[in-house]
Fold this sequence. Notes:
The chain has helices spanning 5-47, 52-66, 83-92, 106-112, 126-132, 175-200, 212-229, 243-250, 252-267, 293-308, 337-357, and strands spanning 72-78, 101-104, 120-123, 142-150, 153-162, 233-240, 275-280, 283-289, 322-328, 363-365. It is an alpha+beta fold. A 5-stranded mixed beta sheet has the order 2-1-5-4-3. It has a 5-stranded mixed beta sheet with strand order 7-8-6-9-10, sandwiched between helices. α1 packs antiparallel against α2 (52-66), α1 packs parallel to α6 (175-200) and α8 crosses α9 (252-267). It is globular and about 90 Å long.
Amino acid sequence: MLISDKEKTKAEEEVTRLRRELAQIKGQVGDNERIWSGFRYIEISLIGTRTLWELLEALTQNFPRAFPQIDCVVLACFDEEYEMMRLLEGASGKEGGHPAFVRLRQDAMTELFSDFRRPMLGQCNQNIQSLLFPGYQKSLGSVAIAPLILQNRLIGCLCQGSRLLGHFPADAATDMLEHLAAVAAVCIDNTVNQERLQRDGLTDPLTGLANRRFFERRLVEEIERWRRHSKTLSCLLVDVDLFKGVNDRYGHQVGDEVLKRISIALGKDLRASDVLARYGGEEFVLLLPETIPQHAMEIAERLREQVEVLQHNEMQDLHVTVSIGVSGLPDQRTLAPTQAGDWLLHQADTALYQAKNSGRNTVCLAPTCAGLN
């Protein structure tokens, strides 16, 4: 069957169009991979920070490395008590703290943005630059402003600025930016809490975990949440098996190193709302808000396994395990709030005693919690 020149030309044009569209798709895929890789690089750098200053340094240094067309990055937070500002001034030794930190007023943000629950991208104006980028002297063309939300509460925003007018188009997808902002909010909370603990003498000097004093404060707070909102609350009491033998055989330096490694293993996969503390000696305690005892048992078993497989390279024959007791608060109608904390710990201790008597390196649930869900 013969085709006309006109049909041949039309077919060639269609092939050219399809090739052009395919090239565009390939280019878009490549751009998306580059963007995803950049966000992932920044996210990892934030997770490793220990202080608010380190977090700001990670933001300001790594954003331009990942995305060269970003000219400035700012962390703007509602800091009503000047706590964050004091931490930054203490780290720098200078008034004003870090140049990439902006202390925000709630009313100023409300005036500028009527609804701020999702990232806003687009052209920058003088009001936005004055409020969010006061230290940047050159004019910005476009900005990306992502809300920082922690436990359903707006705590500030992560702001990027570019001198290029079209770098942040208003209709661009924001999924990856939203994810990064969520990670940043948790990291901010973690670093501030850690610095607060160190300042108030609420950390254990050996492991760097919260100490018993801090745990008791948080227990009171979580009991209050349980009372007000009927939230579930579970507790894990962790004890290192035969730890005295480790000290006696290998010495206290090795024993201290074992405790450090166990503390890291216990805290590895915890949520921001969870509480891990060194309770005393070779004993650790965890509070798991909004966690039923059955789920807490699964978490405890995972933690037990993580400790069991720890490698102690200095001593090839050293094998350390833990026993864990699990408890949970019942319906608040059956237990007075003033008794709840002591009851929760007592039940966890009873379960721990049972785990020890069952041969160690095991997890037991307090009998009174078996029916809770």
